[in-house]
Design a protein that fits this description.
Strands 1-2 form a two-stranded antiparallel sheet. The chain contains 18 helices and 2 strands. By secondary structure, it is an all-alpha fold. The longest helix is centred in the middle third of the chain and has 19 residues. 69% of the residues lie in helices and 1% in strands. The N terminus is likely disordered. Among the domains are: 120 residues, Serine Threonine Protein Phosphatase 5, Tetratricopeptide repeat (Alpha Horseshoe), CATH 1.25.40.10; 80 residues. Helix 1 runs antiparallel to helix 2, helix 2 packs antiparallel against helix 3 and helix 14 crosses helix 16.
Length: 331
């Protein structure tokens, strides 16, 4: 748990090592103090950066707070170095991919887990996850990437996500262009690219590209959300209503997609439709999303819930410096 060195007199200095930090992280995790838990686990990993147990437990905290990309980066690193010794990583990765809406990846890792862990602890959960997942036809079947490629994709995703959440459009576009070139089958990058393109002023091009994508992939949820926003902000109410009417009947199972629909309704002023969607969300799984605080508080404000809006905005400012540097959207 710790090491000590005797010095003059009876003083024995206490010098924490990784195991001490790890035990403190477990205590905080059990009390659901996830931010504190994460700090302790990160200290443990600083002491023992290659300890797979520390990395796995840290990934679980990342999952709890909604940082699914960071969780999977740690888990893929463990698999790359430890191989079959930590088979549960396959299920944890599948679960994170499901939350991200990357359904084919979730299916692939859940199936790998069931194949490799014949008596695994999470077999029942993995089987249930597979039953819940609806296969997304817009993803290509041939998705047999190496672990290094998976890790690269996760790093690109996390970087693009960071810029998009902070509305840093130019920076996001640069990352997304590289993603599209390197991972052309990863469809979400295209939707995020169209979204960022629209907000730097290339509205016509963004709409045309998204319309073309939807024509080729009629069930693309991100296309429906993007086009509802694009046409709404272009004040083309007929087309915007067409897409929002479709979204009203869609209730995804993944937290990020649920948030995206709520944000979509808010961005085009449909606050009464957005509010119940926000209420369905689990805030603990969206702590890595400034957009949750930005748009939920906006929705509340314009529905007359001004005190609640101010309170939620202040909470977001405590978590995100980018929000603290801005005025609330309604001001």
């Amino acid at each position: 748990m710790s090491k000590s060195h005797s010095i003059e007199g009876n003083i024995i200095p206490f010098i924490p090592e990784g195991d001490f930090y790890f035990s403190k992280g477990i205590e905080a995790y059990q009390k659901q103090k996830f931010d504190l838990s994460l700090k302790w686990f990160q200290k443990a990993m600083e002491e023992k950066p290659d300890n797979p147990l520390y990395q796995c437990q840290t990934s679980i905290v990342y999952t709890e707070i909604g940082s699914y990309h960071l969780a999977n980066q740690l888990l893929t690193r463990v698999l790359a170095k430890q191989g079959e010794e930590y088979i549960d990583c396959y299920y944890l990765i599948a679960n994170n991919y499901a939350h991200l809406g990357l359904l084919q990846d979730a299916i692939k890792y859940a199936e790998l887990y069931l194949e490799k862990a014949t008596d695994g602890e999470f077999r029942e959960e993995a089987a249930t996850l597979l039953e819940m997942l609806d296969f997304d036809d817009e993803e290509e079947d041939d998705n047999d990437w190496t672990l290094d490629e998976e890790d690269d994709l996760l790093m690109y995703q996390e970087t693009a996500f960071y810029h998009l959440e902070r509305e840093e459009w130019e920076e996001a576009i640069a990352v997304l262009e590289e993603m599209i070139a390197l991972f052309p089958e990863f469809s979400q990058a295209r939707h995020e690219y169209h979204y960022a393109l629209f907000f730097i002023g290339e509205r016509k091009e963004a709409i045309e590209m998204e319309e073309k994508y939807l024509q080729d992939h009629p069930d693309a949820l991100f296309s429906l959300m993007n086009l509802a926003i694009f046409y709404g902000l272009e004040q083309n109410n007929e087309k915007s209503n067409y897409y929002t009417n479709m979204l009203e009947n869609i209730y995804p199972i993944h937290e990020q997609q649920k948030l995206r629909i709520a944000v979509t309704f808010t961005q085009i002023g449909l606050y009464d439709k957005a509010l119940p969607r926000f209420k369905m969300l689990h805030k603990s799984k969206l702590k890595g999303h400034p957009s949750y605080y930005r748009w939920y508080s906006t929705c509340q404000y314009y529905l007359g819930m001004k005190e609640e809006a101010e309170q939620l905005w202040r909470e977001g400012c405590k978590h995100f410096q980018i929000l603290a540097e801005q005025a609330p959207p309604w001001k």
